[in-house]
Design a protein that fits this description.
30% of the residues lie in helices and 33% in strands. The chain has 141 residues and is α+β, with helices and mostly antiparallel strands. It has 2 domains: 30 residues; 104 residues, Immunoglobulin-like, CATH 2.60.40. A 4-stranded antiparallel β-sheet has the order 4-3-6-7.
Length: 141
């Protein structure tokens, strides 16, 4: 084999490998954390105030995964309104938003059996007595 054929073969293999990498990168599914990421960054000062309000509470809400259900419990002297966002970091299509609807014992059972296994972040947003609150919980299913 002479030098010309060797150089041609080297550059041909390089181009084929480069095209393979480009094709592979275009076939990967890339999910953003949120569709409105930039707007959330602008509103982050409100989020800091919600977290500050939550840290000042004497009794905070509790959330636990028990089998196929998520149990949310609020202190007895509260009357919250808001929602829970179940956030799946690996797949945005699995995210789920559930309104807070407490029973007479200040608890709520949420069916979690249809959710995929893995790490979930439960983001609890609620309002009580004209103050807004926010708390995160890590769930491993």
């Amino acid at each position: 084999m002479n030098w010309g054929k060797g150089i041609f073969l080297f550059y041909s293999l390089f181009v084929v490998a480069l095209l393979g990498v480009v094709y592979f990168s275009f076939t990967q599914d890339v999910n953003l954390v949120a569709d409105d990421y930039y707007q959330q960054e602008i509103d982050y000062e409100n989020q800091i105030n919600r977290m500050r309000n939550t840290s000042a509470l004497a009794q905070k809400p509790a959330l636990e995964l028990a089998g196929d259900f998520v149990k949310l419990t609020f202190p007895p002297n509260s009357s919250p309104s808001g929602y829970i966002l179940f956030f799946h970091p690996a797949q945005a299509s699995q995210d789920r938003k559930v309104a807070i609807a407490l029973d007479s014992h200040h608890t709520q059972q949420i069916d979690f059996s249809s959710q995929k296994p893995g790490k979930w972040i439960a983001k609890l947003f609620w309002k009580d007595k004209d103050k807004e609150y926010y708390q995160e919980f890590i769930l491993l299913k």
